[in-house]
């Protein structure tokens, strides 16, 4: 296997889909295999003491299957270096410990992914890294939450989950940089196909590759991508020192998913637009939340920084919590379940499922809210399923 730096990162000027399919890996020099082999090897024979072949010595530090994925991740985010982790939360934990120290402070979204909030509130806090929540849609409120000198990271999700709030990445990068902090963007909901935060001034991109990048609900993983080589060294050091790496089988599956991200995302967006058109104006639905709607408060910013508006939709139903639960249970093509971003459509009740742990806090979501992860099935079947489920 050969890999040159020109294959990955910002040196690769090919189009998005070409990078997704080819970056990070050249057909195997010996066999011509077009896909990276699954290198199920923990260690590597050395040609004399310290004589490493391709830099490989032990698979926590580096594994060729993971290297291929990491090169492709860097290329699709228009970054310089990519890192693959065992989960999205493992990637986040590595960022926190690489880029903050006890006594430091982080601004986080006031509607952060529940696991991210838990990581800051129950884990990072004990380690001494404090956090304050702020609404990502309100640049002034984020600026007000920054404590100059103490805030090391401004952490943003856009769109957020499940209210699909939009943060202006360029403006938030300025807020962070003016305070001497770094901007971290969790790009899970948009995926690198729809939004590339590093090109808008973000310093660090993090993903749960479990979602759209993997795309088939068959693997859990995480990623970090950066441009700055000093940041890359710090993340890379902690990836090895903390050890939450993606294994070769998981790296293979994630990389396979990444290759079709562009076509999948376009279909997710097409289908979501059809579903939004059906829900919007239906008397059984009181509100549709989708950044593609002109009525969405973040529509203009989303239109500027995203290629399209994604496959996630939230909506509220007339009839309150009982109706919302019944709709979730009556749906058949939409599978009742947590997670998102796979080829299959999912429906869930955030108040009782993904966001049950934030009930009674500022992050509480309306109890008549339903969240859809619109998959890539036949759009007519999705609309008919929702029509039936709404009763
Ligand atoms: C799922 C998710 C995570 C956590 O990723 P895991 O792979 O489940 O550890 C982080 N951020 C967002 C926005 C997510 O949806």
UniProtKB/TrEMBL annotation:
The EC number(s) attached to this protein equal 2.5.1.48
Which Gene3D superfamilies does the annotation name? Answer: Aspartate Aminotransferase, domain 1 (3.90.1150.10), Type I PLP-dependent aspartate aminotransferase-like (Major domain) (3.40.640.10)
Q: What class of enzyme is it?
A: transferase
Query: Where in this protein does the record say N6-(pyridoxal phosphate)lysine is found?
Result: 211
Record GO cellular component, one term: cytoplasm
**Which co-factors does it depend on?**
pyridoxal 5'-phosphate
Pfam families per record: Cys_Met_Meta_PP (PF01053)
SUPFAM superfamilies recorded: PLP-dependent transferases
- What GO MF terms are annotated? cystathionine gamma-lyase activity; cystathionine gamma-synthase activity; pyridoxal phosphate binding
Q: What keywords are assigned to this protein?
A: Lyase, Pyridoxal phosphate
Q: Which reaction does it catalyse?
A: O-succinyl-L-homoserine + L-cysteine = L,L-cystathionine + succinate + H(+)
Q: Which GO terms describe its biological process?
A: cysteine biosynthetic process via cystathionine; transsulfuration
The UniProt entry, under PANTHER family, shows:
CYSTATHIONINE GAMMA-LYASE, TRANS-SULFURATION ENZYME FAMILY MEMBER
Which family does the entry's similarity section mention? Answer: Belongs to the trans-sulfuration enzymes family.
Could you tell me what this protein is called?
Cystathionine gamma-synthase
Q: State the organism named in the record.
A: Nocardioides exalbidus
Upper classification of the organism: Bacteria, Bacillati, Actinomycetota, Actinomycetes, Propionibacteriales
């Amino acid at each position: 296997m050969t890999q040159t730096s020109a294959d990955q990162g910002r040196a690769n000027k090919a189009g998005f889909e070409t990078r997704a399919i080819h970056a990070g890996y050249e057909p195997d020099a010996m066999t011509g295999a077009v896909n990276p082999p699954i290198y199920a090897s923990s260690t590597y024979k050395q040609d004399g003491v310290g004589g490493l072949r391709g830099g490989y010595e032990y698979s926590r530090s580096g594994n060729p299957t993971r290297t291929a994925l990491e090169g492709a991740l860097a290329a699709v985010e228009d970054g310089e270096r990519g890192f693959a982790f065992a989960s999205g939360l493992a990637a986040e934990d590595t960022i926190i410990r690489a880029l903050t120290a006890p006594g430091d402070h982080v601004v986080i979204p006031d509607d952060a992914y529940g696991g991210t909030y838990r990581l800051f509130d129950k884990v990072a806090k004990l380690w001494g890294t404090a956090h304050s929540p702020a609404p990502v849609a309100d640049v002034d409120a984020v600026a007000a939450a920054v404590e100059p000198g103490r805030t090391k990271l401004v952490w943003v999700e856009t769109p957020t989950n499940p209210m699909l709030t939009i943060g202006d990445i360029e403006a938030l990068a300025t807020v962070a940089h003016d305070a001497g902090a770094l901007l971290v963007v969790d790009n899970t909901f948009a995926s690198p196909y729809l939004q590339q935060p590093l090109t808008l001034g973000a310093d660090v991109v993090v993903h749960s590759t479990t979602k759209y990048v993997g795309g088939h609900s068959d693997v859990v993983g995480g990623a970090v991508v950066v441009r700055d080589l000093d940041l890359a060294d710090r993340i890379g050091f902690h990836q090895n020192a903390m050890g939450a790496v993606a294994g070769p089988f998981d790296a293979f599956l994630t990389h396979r998913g990444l290759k079709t991200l562009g076509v999948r995302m376009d279909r997710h967006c097409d289908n979501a637009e059809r579903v939004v058109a059906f829900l919007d104006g239906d008397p059984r639905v009181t509100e549709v939340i989708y950044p593609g709607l002109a009525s969405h408060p973040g529509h203009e910013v989303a239109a500027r920084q995203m290629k399209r508006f994604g496959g996630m939709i939230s909506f509220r139903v007339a009839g309150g919590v009982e109706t919302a639960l019944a709709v979730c249970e009556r749906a058949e093509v939409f599978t009742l379940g947590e997670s998102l971003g796979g080829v299959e459509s999912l429906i869930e009740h955030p108040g009782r499922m993904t966001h049950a742990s934030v009930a009674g806090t500022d992050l509480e979501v309306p109890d008549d809210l339903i969240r859809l992860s619109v998959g890539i099935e036949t759009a007519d079947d999705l609309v008919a399923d929702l029509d039936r489920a709404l009763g």
